[in-house]
Amino acid sequence: MSSSKPASLSTGENAPPLYQQVKEYILRKIHSGEWHADMKIDSEAELVAATGVSRMTVNRALRELSAEGRLIRRQGLGTFVAEKKPQAALLEINSIAREIEARGGKYSCTVHLLQEEKAQPGVAARMELQPYSSVFHSVIVHRDNLIPIQLSSRYINPAFAPEYLKQDFTSVTPNEYLLSLAPITAVEHVVEALIPDPWVRELLEINSAEPCLALYRTTWVGNLIATYSVFYSPGSRYTLGSRFVPPSGGVIEVS
Question: Superfamily assignment of 87-241 in CATH?
Answer without folding.
Answer: Chorismate lyase-like (3.40.1410.10)
